[in-house]
Design goal:
The protein has 292 residues and is mainly alpha-helical. The chain is 79% helix and 0% strand. α6 runs antiparallel to α13 and α12 runs antiparallel to α13. The radius of gyration is 18 Å and the shape is globular. The two termini are 23 Å apart.
Length: 292
C-alpha cells in the first residue's frame, strides 16, 4: 500500500505544479524557471542523499550515460517541449495530450521490457484517459481537437515522447541504481543542460526581478514536486513496473483542476466529477490483480 500512496502523492504534487508554475511563469521566462527549479532540486537531493547514505552519491562510470539520458529526456527535453508548447497551446488541450503518456508507456514497456499488457490494464488505461479528456474538455473531448495539430501541439507530443523515454529507461536503470541516486544525478545532469538556454533567454534579469512569492514557488517546485515526487515515482516504477506506475499520471490533471477550484476559485462542473471518477476507476482497474 505504501508504494501506491507514494505514487498518488507524487502526482498530487505534480498537479500542484500547474498552479505554482502558472504563478511563477508570470514573472520569469520558462528556461529560467526550469533551471532555478532544478538547481534547487539538485541541491536538495544532494543534501538528502548525504543524510540518507552518509556521503554524497557516487555514480559508477558504467551508469553515467544511462542516467545522463534520464536527465536529457525527463529534465531538459521535457521542459523544453513543455514550456515551448505552452506558449501557444491552452493548458487543457496540452494536458489532454500529455494524458496519453500511460498508454504509450504501456505499449513501449510491453514491446521493450516484456512487461505484461493485460486486458484490465488496457481497459483501465483507456477508461482513465477518457475520463481525463472529459475533465479537461468540459464534457466534449472531440472539441479539443478541432482545427488539427499546431506546432505547439507537436511540442506537447514531444513531452509525451520525452516522458515515455524517461519512464521506460528509468525502469532499466532502477535494476542497478537506487531511485534516490538516479533522480539526484539525472537532475544534476539535466540542470547542466538547461544552463545555456536559460542564460540565452534572460536568466540574470529574471533573477533580479524575482519576488518572495516566486522564490517560494521555486522551492516548492524544486524540493517537493521534483526532489520528493520524482524519488517516489521511481520507487513506484521499481516496485510495480513502468506501465502500471505511469498510469497514475492521468491523475495529474484531475488534481490540478481540483486545486484550481480551491486556490483559484475555479468552478467544479459535472464533467469534472464524472471524468474524475472515471480516471480514478481506471487507475484502480489497471492496478488490480488480473489473471489475463
Amino acid at each position: 500500500m505504501l508504494v501506491y500512496a507514494q505514487l498518488v502523492s507524487s502526482v498530487f504534487f505534480w498537479g500542484a505544479t500547474w498552479i505554482s508554475g502558472r504563478v511563477l511563469a508570470q514573472d520569469m521566462g520558462p528556461f529560467s524557471a526550469a533551471l532555478l527549479r532544478f538547481v534547487t532540486a539538485s541541491a536538495f537531493l544532494l543534501f538528502w542523499s548525504w543524510r540518507v547514505n552518509g556521503s554524497f552519491p557516487a555514480l559508477p562510470k558504467k551508469d553515467i550515460l544511462p542516467v545522463a539520458f534520464l536527465g536529457l529526456t525527463g529534465i531538459f527535453l521535457y521542459n523544453a517541449f513543455f514550456f515551448t508548447g505552452l506558449q501557444t497551446v491552452p493548458a487543457g488541450r496540452a494536458a489532454l495530450i500529455i494524458a496519453s503518456v500511460p498508454v504509450i508507456i504501456s505499449i513501449v514497456s510491453a514491446m521493450m521490457l516484456g512487461e505484461p499488457l493485460t486486458r484490465s490494464m488496457i481497459v483501465g488505461t483507456l477508461l482513465s484517459l477518457t475520463g481525463a479528456s472529459i475533465v479537461l474538455s468540459g464534457g466534449n473531448p472531440l472539441g479539443l481537437f478541432r482545427g488539427g495539430l499546431s506546432r505547439g501541439d507537436l511540442m506537447i507530443l514531444g513531452c509525451v515522447a520525452a516522458w515515455t523515454a524517461y519512464s521506460v529507461a528509468g525502469s532499466r536503470v532502477m535494476k542497478r541504481v537506487n531511485p534516490l541516486m538516479a533522480v539526484t544525478w539525472s537532475c544534476i545532469l539535466g540542470t547542466l543542460m538547461l544552463v545555456a538556454p536559460a542564460l540565452t533567454f534572460g536568466l540574470i534579469g529574471d533573477i533580479g526581478r524575482a519576488s518572495l512569492v516566486d522564490w517560494g514557488n521555486i522551492l516548492f517546485l524544486g524540493v517537493v514536486a521534483t526532489g520528493v515526487a520524482f524519488t517516489w515515482y521511481y520507487a513506484g516504477i521499481r516496485a510495480i513496473g513502468a506501465a502500471r506506475a505511469g498510469i497514475f499520471i492521468n491523475l495529474v490533471p484531475v488534481f490540478a483542476i481540483a486545486m484550481g477550484y480551491v486556490i483559484l476559485d475555479e468552478p467544479v462542473t459535472s464533467s469534472l466529477l464524472t471524468g474524475g471518477a472515471m480516471v480514478i476507476s481506471g487507475v484502480w482497474l489497471a492496478n488490480r490483480p488480473s489473471s489475463s
